[in-house]
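Final report, Chapter 2: Outcomes

The project's central promise was a pipeline that accepts a single protein chain and returns its three-dimensional structure in a standardized token representation, suitable for archiving and comparison. That pipeline is now operational. To close this chapter, we reproduce one record exactly as it appears in the project archive, with the input sequence first and the structure output second.
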Amino acid sequence: MRNSYFITGCLALLLSLASLCLKAEDLNGIWKGTLTQGAGGCYPSYFLELQINFANDRIIGRAYDYYDKTHFVKMSFTGRYNAKTHRLVIIEDKVLEADIPPDCLPCSKTYDLSYSKTGDLEELAGDWKGLYSEKHLVCPPGKIRLKKASQSDFPVDVDQNDTLAMQQATLHLQPREKEVVKSVTVNSADIKIELYDNAEIDHDTVTVLINDKLLLYRKMLTDRPLTIHFNALPGVQYELVMYADNLGDIPPNTALMLVTAGDQKFEVFLSSTEEKSAAVHFVFKP
């Protein structure tokens, strides 16, 4: 009987360790390298940057394929990762921006990549195929090889829902000076921000952007939190800006911001006026 308990305990321990190993790979971050394309493509080789946001087994992000930094295609993508096989599949779903020669067309791609790590070097490599976004014709396929990088060559977005994206497309905020009131370094990619009225509830309303993406629009500060949740890429600076839509009954527009990142908690006091917006910088360092 004791041997049975021992064997059962060992099996449970091994399964637990195996589970930890499967979750050890962190795809979250910036990946840079090259993308080749077969005969008939606009160029035989491109640079490629993937901004992979990997949290809770969910992959979203942005892809930039470019010949140089002034001529690029920016795509959004979703994906999935199999920790047992170390295989990553990414599917581009939307052209967000394109600045390419008129005789070239954006190609919406599907990536089939394998993850590997040798020492400190992490790589993604594999094949891609796709369709020209406008004509639904097959693009000449090719190969991809990427390495994990510490810095991006392009701006890093935060996830924004379609409603906010539509609002931002017609939004015209008056330019204001920004005052950085605090810079916060966190050790967790998962960041939660809660905004409350700082004192007496006096009908302050705010618009909040992170890295120029609209995340709250004309929301009133009360004793109940306005909540923003986002997953940060390592080494990337995120700038939150609180824009005062009005000054409330008691100027200026003030807020208490509570930041939770893993086991870390911070309090930040923000004050914005019609001339100046409060800003906070965040950097995730694993």
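Archive annotation: Residues 4-24 have pLDDT under 50 and may be disordered.
This record, like all others produced under the grant, will remain available to the consortium after the project formally closes.
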